Structures are given as structure tokens and as C-alpha cells.
Automatic annotation (TrEMBL), chain A:
Protein name listed in UniProt: Peptidase S26 domain-containing protein
Biological source species: Linum trigynum
GO cellular component, one term: mitochondrial inner membrane peptidase complex
PROSITE patterns referenced in this protein's UniProt entry, alphabetically: SPASE_I_3 (PS00761)
Domain Peptidase S26: from-to ranges: 26-104, 114-157
Automatic annotation (TrEMBL), chain B:
Classification via InterPro entries: LexA/Signal_pep-like_sf, Mito_IMP1_subunit, Pept_S26A_signal_pept_1, Peptidase_S26
GO biological process: protein processing involved in protein targeting to mitochondrion; signal peptide processing
UniProt organism field: Linum trigynum
Primary localization class, coarse: mitochondrion
Catalytic residue list: 39, 83
CDD domains the UniProt entry points to: S26_SPase_I
Complex and partners: Heterodimer of 2 subunits, IMP1A/B and IMP12.
GO MF entry, a single one: serine-type endopeptidase activity
Protein name: Peptidase S26 domain-containing protein
Any one cellular-component term (Gene Ontology): mitochondrial inner membrane peptidase complex
Length: 166, 161
């Protein structure tokens, strides 16, 4: 008799748990889909995008729509999965799209010598704004377009630097 | 009237939830891929095979030489290609430059963070011999189990070289 009432209580508790868990799961899915496909935030730090982005870290909003629609152009700041370390994501500026000729200084600290490359099909040429301290396409070559994760368009922190990037 | 609208809304919400679950499973767990074309003959049929592919291994770094993987094309970003991994970063890969005409080979060390992919049918395959080593982050899934056609049902062969 007692066993039956225990089973009944357990059943109703289980049902309620599942209901609440499914609400939580749906909420997390919604957050995830927004974060992965529409808009997300990232902390970007390091010297490679000075003076545009601060060395000690900026929080920027990243939109994930432009790169899927093919609407990226030179001048956009993009976040890209690094071709030399697949676990790392870097933020650089697009300097050339496929088919463009890009001229860059091979050793900006030491000499004036420059090189011109043609960006191959399906690739983009990315460079940090701070050419003196940036590992970018000048080091690892043109990056396949499929590695682009999104475009940074708005800086939200620090507040004194709040504003659109570009 | 409002009850019809409410019912339509509820049904739409249900469909959206089901689609959301399907999409997340497809993108992060396991998906069914239609692989076709001549580049993986005899492993994959010319007219197309349906193959189960899992997306977890590339994320945890469990892709190795001999695996057949789905890779986003470095030449046409909207396209995905199915090839076999022949070399991981640091491996030395030796390949025939022009298999139809000569025996000339070329040797290359796969750079850090990249993989070397080749189709099993080297006579008719555009792969790393054409577009070079591919960044590891472009590897999207690993082929696991062929589900169609029924006579070829079974695991994908893993070849170690």
C-alpha cells in the first residue's frame, strides 16, 4: 500500500521535473541559436588590433549573418578560427577578398620591402591593424573563407569606447 | 476565432521546437550525408551513398590518418567535400603529381594546424594535391556508417598507411 503511494508521488515529481527541465532546455536552445547564428559577444584582447581595439581587452558584439550571406568586404573586422591553431579564434581586419591583389610590408620594423600577392579563390587576406605586432595572413597566408566565424560590429565595453567598429 | 489562432500558434511552436532539436542534433552530434562523385571510388559509389557522420570527433581532436571526413572546401566556401585524411600536422606526405602520365612524386610536410586530404580515386579527385593542406578547423564531421544502398550497409573502412 505504502509502496503504491510512493510510486505515485515519485511519478508526479518526475513529471514535474521533466516539464521544468524541458522549459530550461528550450530556453538554452534559444540562447544558443541566437548566440551561434545571430549575435554574440566576445572579449578581444592583445596588441594586434591597436589602436582600433584596446590591448587589455574590449567586449565586442559579433554578428554571424554577414559571412553566411557573403556580405563581407575589405575593411570589416572579422573573427576567424586560426589556421595554425584550430582551438584559437583571432580578430583581424579583412584587407583583401578573393581575386584582390594585396601589397604588404614584409618586415615593417626593419625595412621598406614589400610583396604583392593575389588572394586565391575562396580565401581572404586578413591583417591586424597593428602590423608591427600581429600574426596574420602575412605570416600564415590567405585564410579560407570557411574559417570566418563572424563580423565584429559594435564595441560595448569599456564604456568610453562604446560605438560601432569599421 | 482566437482559438484557431491560438491552436495555429501552438502547433507552430511545436514544429519549431522539433526543428530546433533536430537542427542541434544535426549540427553538433550526428548527421546523414549524401556523398557522391568519382573522387572516393571504390569506397563511396559514384551515384551517391547515404552515410552517417558524427560531428564530435573533430571537436575533441580525435580525427586521424585513415579517417574519411567531411571538410568545408577551401576553394568554394559553400561546398563540403568528402575525402580521406592522409596526413596530420607534422606528417610527411608523398603523392604522385600526375598519376595518369608519370611516376613523379612530391613530398611535403603537413604544416601545423593543417591536414592533408586525398580522395581514394587519385585519378579523378580534387584534393590537397590541388589546393594544398587544409586547416584543421575546416574539418566538420567524420563518416561512420553507411546506411544506403542496403548492399553496402556497414562501417566505413578505415585504412592506415
Amino acid at each position: 500500500m505504502k509502496l503504491l503511494s510512493y510510486i505515485k508521488q515519485w511519478k508526479s515529481a518526475a513529471r514535474e521535473t521533466i516539464a521544468r527541465a524541458s522549459i530550461a532546455a528550450q530556453f538554452l536552445s534559444l540562447i544558443h541559436i541566437t548566440d551561434a547564428y545571430i549575435c554574440s559577444t566576445t572579449l578581444v584582447q592583445g596588441p594586434s588590433m591597436l589602436p582600433t581595439l584596446n590591448y587589455s581587452g574590449d567586449v565586442v558584439l559579433i554578428e554571424h549573418l554577414s559571412h553566411r550571406l557573403g556580405k563581407l568586404e575589405p575593411g570589416d573586422i572579422v573573427v576567424v578560427r586560426s589556421p595554425v591553431d584550430p582551438k584559437k579564434i583571432v580578430a583581424k581586419r579583412i584587407v583583401g577578398m578573393e581575386g584582390d591583389r594585396v601589397t604588404y610590408l614584409t618586415e615593417p620594423s626593419y625595412s621598406e620591402s614589400s610583396r604583392t600577392v593575389l588572394v586565391p579563390k575562396g580565401h581572404v587576406w586578413i591583417q591586424g591593424d597593428n602590423v608591427y605586432a600581429s600574426a596574420d595572413s602575412r605570416y600564415f597566408g590567405a585564410v579560407p573563407y570557411g574559417l570566418i566565424q563572424g563580423r565584429a560590429f559594435l564595441r560595448v565595453w569599456p564604456i568610453r569606447d562604446f560605438g560601432f567598429l569599421g | 476565432m482566437w482559438s484557431i489562432i491560438r491552436e495555429a500558434f501552438d502547433k507552430t511552436l511545436l514544429v519549431a521546437k522539433a526543428y530546433g532539436i533536430l537542427h542541434i542534433t544535426n549540427s553538433y552530434l550526428c548527421t546523414v550525408a549524401l556523398a557522391y562523385g568519382p573522387s572516393m571510388i571504390p569506397t563511396i559509389n559514384l551515384t551517391g551513398d547515404l552515410i552517417l557522420a558524427e560531428r564530435i570527433s573533430p571537436r575533441i581532436g580525435k580525427v586521424g590518418v585513415g579517417d574519411i571526413v567531411i571538410v568545408r572546401s577551401p576553394v568554394v566556401p559553400r561546398r563540403v567535400v568528402t575525402k580521406r585524411v592522409v596526413g596530420m600536422e607534422g606528417d610527411q606526405v608523398t603523392y604522385l603529381l600526375d598519376p595518369h602520365n608519370s611516376d613523379e612524386v612530391h613530398s611535403i610536410v603537413v604544416p601545423r594546424g593543417h591536414v592533408w586530404i586525398q580522395g581514394d580515386n587519385i585519378y579523378n579527385s580534387k584534393d590537397s594535391r590541388d589546393f594544398g593542406p587544409v586547416p584543421y578547423a575546416l574539418v566538420e564531421a567524420k563518416l561512420l556508417w553507411r546506411v544506403w544502398p542496403p548492399k553496402d550497409f556497414g562501417p566505413m573502412q578505415h585504412i592506415s598507411r
